[in-house]
Amino acid sequence: MAITSWQEKAQEARDYRDASLAKVKPPIGPLPLSLPVNSLELPKQHLTPREYELTQEYDAIQLLAMLKEKEVTSEELTRAFLRRAALAQAAVNCVTELMWDDAIERAKFLDAQAEPVGPLHGLPFSVKQQHGMRGKPCHASYVAWIGEPSTINPINDILWDAGCVFYVRTTEPQSTMHLECNNNITGRTVNPYNRNLTPGGSTGGEGALLGYGASVFGMGGDIGGSVRGPASNNGVYGFKPTSKRLPLRGMKCAMIGNETVMPTFGPLTRRRETINLFMDVVLTAEPWRLDPGLFSKSWTPVSLEKPLKVAIQWDDGVVKSHPPMLRALREVAQACRNAGMEVVDWVSYEHEKAWDILSRLYFPDGGLDTIEVIEKSGEPLVPLTEWIINQPGVRKLDIRKLWALCGERDAYRAAHAAHWSDTADADRHEVDVILCPAVPGAAPPHECARCWDYTAQWNLLDYPAVVFPVTYVDAQKDPANAEYTPLNSQDKFNHELYDPNLYGGAPVCLQVV
Amino acid sequence: MAITSWQEKAQEARDYRDASLAKVKPPIGPLPLSLPVNSLELPKQHLTPREYELTQEYDAIQLLAMLKEKEVTSEELTRAFLRRAALAQAAVNCVTELMWDDAIERAKFLDAQAEPVGPLHGLPFSVKQQHGMRGKPCHASYVAWIGEPSTINPINDILWDAGCVFYVRTTEPQSTMHLECNNNITGRTVNPYNRNLTPGGSTGGEGALLGYGASVFGMGGDIGGSVRGPASNNGVYGFKPTSKRLPLRGMKCAMIGNETVMPTFGPLTRRRETINLFMDVVLTAEPWRLDPGLFSKSWTPVSLEKPLKVAIQWDDGVVKSHPPMLRALREVAQACRNAGMEVVDWVSYEHEKAWDILSRLYFPDGGLDTIEVIEKSGEPLVPLTEWIINQPGVRKLDIRKLWALCGERDAYRAAHAAHWSDTADADRHEVDVILCPAVPGAAPPHECARCWDYTAQWNLLDYPAVVFPVTYVDAQKDPANAEYTPLNSQDKFNHELYDPNLYGGAPVCLQVV
């Protein structure tokens, strides 16, 4: 019996992807041999005006209204997003499977219904490959798992029952524990604004797809910033809810059962209101009836009764934010003041300690479970997998050491909660939200995303956090700070990454916690 | 330096207790040398008529109304409960510390306030010793921990801020992992209805205290039935909320950090409405601000909009309920039908498998952490500690085996949820609640409480469950079933325990899940 090398297995997955892309009619292209640094000029050239309009101009909620008013059919809309997704793949390598036949069949079915089947009736919806898809394989970016079936994913089923059209599945990095998007199967996904920068990860394919305008509504997963990092790097909205609100089953990964820090699904969108729509659709389906481990609580968007007290986290005390991020913070802080809000400075509470606890909680088996899946096929570890598993504190623990580590986590959580409560000392008004970066700048160059803390802090504390777009890097407004003296080696690494010309035009987002 | 034996250390804790009881004025007694089987005849003889009335006739909510109307002062009420608690200690051995001076000082302080400090203003409140008390020691019934300080307990602080008077701390078993109440420090707590039966555990001291009428409102903890078992054995209400609703910090025990199955605090009360009061007081304090791991959701009592569909779990498929329990189920089922509810039979879903998973989750370190605390002082393991640690499946696991076990747990939870949902197949009306025993009969004789499943099943699934009193064992109505053929050895053990004369007069309760 011939032994299949890992390279041959990886090729099978790429062949599967390419066969799915070959269905596109009319086909995309031809594209220039040398792709432009900024891929966003391509859609206008390679799509019909109507396709461009449908995919470029509207948000999910507007498209749903148009579908309802029959200004567009689900089939026409789906075909437009399918073609733009195919173009996105050619431009930034973010697709693992284009669901051409399935999506068009589904759209036709929905168009034929007399009544809407649910609140997402006819809307194209994109999903990270790792989350599986009924009847499709799911490898979660491990070569060893290529050809394995998807597990049942209740949240996919809920979205389907609400009437969406699944049309594309997107890339993620090896181990899904990078803030970038590179693996041995599909290779590297790049940022649509600048192919020399990363789209982020682990939900990097979704991030790039939304940044590229090839999706208005997608879903990723987040255990350290995997929804919010890509949202920030690609200039879209991304939300990480509190854990145990959304069903988690169906998320294929190593270390299933490791629950000392929990991942959660979360949406990526073009507009804030669509986040509410996502949460409302999923929670109205009462997922706690399927998974008793979830909290039974419907989605209640906040309505502000008095002006917020907003605390600005300029940096985390470890790694300083880049100039365009500091400008974004200043601009939004001023906008908050103009809107009558109180704006104060946030004092970060021992983020280095938080990261030490969290990185040890990520891999209490010393990374063994992950490494075994990688070694099973013979594929090599990619550099950022090696980097995260080799964080200084990571050790293989026995159960009692794990319990002690959970104790450290809980003590940190309680201390941070007290730190937050103490903000009410002066005026009896506790800080309502923290406004902070999700990454310390715009999207970094490849292999350089090593600053988890701005997002991961809120996973350790299990606070909900949302990313929203603010501005773009502007070489004029955001010169490098040549006078700056780095605080430490991590800060030096991050500081030296910044070059206003390299980053120019890249989106800059902020995070509300 | 002289080495203190474990016996001497245990004596120190008893001396501490006895010194606290010596403060009682006027002192209790003298009691008969040979205590009666049923201790409930003593209070009328040994308390003043007013003390008896105050402690016997009212529920917490009624007492709060009387305090508000100044029909009684907090001091008078507290002194009455202090004296009845001292009598309870003499009769059934349920007290670790009587807080005579502290409680009276607190009551006087509250009486002196112009306005109530909170919704529990002036009400005596009893607490399990393990939960600690500001400024007091806490040994959690391990000899090794005698003399150690209490850790901060946010739920105690919330109750205090609501105006309660802590006046007594109560017993629990060694390791707090028994459904009885025996340890090497305070010895055995017995059932107030019948000293040959157990009050249950681990919140056995509270159960006995409430059963004895020496408390109207107390708090225990529950990871397998430790609130509900004692409530059932002593004929009072007991509630186990879903985990992560109430703050857990301050519950002193071994294996801190083991969170694959979570304990929770819970109230014991004389009336159903007082459970709502407890939950409302604690959740109105927004404990999630102190502990970000908690769910932020206020307490919303259920109001019934249409008749319930009630499923009766006659037994768990493993151990059959005793005759008085079956009668209680029949009586309540009939009452439900009379109230217009639909009543169906519940089919238990693989409870043996559930117990196997749960018992392994209790001790994934093979019991090592618990045994070490016990061995540290040299005290011996009491029989039920040995029994629970030696459940057939219990093994010391490495982290990856623990993850696999969590996977088994989640698969069981999902399968059970589907089993429940399937009850809607016939008529599109899902079962709303399960009505079932909390123990397969009345309180069992000492050393015989080996049936965890009726309560622990709902800990594994993390469903809220409440126990309420129904009836008493009646030798006439509840003869033994001589014809019965046991299903298995556990069932045989349980079946042979039943003797209508031994159990006569003991309370019988049911559980709603």
TrEMBL record, chains A, B:
<dbReference type="InterPro" id="IPR036928">
    <property type="entry name" value="AS_sf"/>
</dbReference>
<keyword id="KW-0378">Hydrolase</keyword>
<comment type="similarity">
    <text>Belongs to the amidase family.</text>
</comment>
<feature type="domain" description="Amidase">
    <location>
        <begin position="76"/>
        <end position="513"/>
    </location>
</feature>
<dbReference type="Pfam" id="PF01425">
    <property type="entry name" value="Amidase"/>
</dbReference>
<protein>
    <recommendedName>
        <fullName>Amidase domain-containing protein</fullName>
    </recommendedName>
</protein>
<dbReference type="InterPro" id="IPR023631">
    <property type="entry name" value="Amidase_dom"/>
</dbReference>
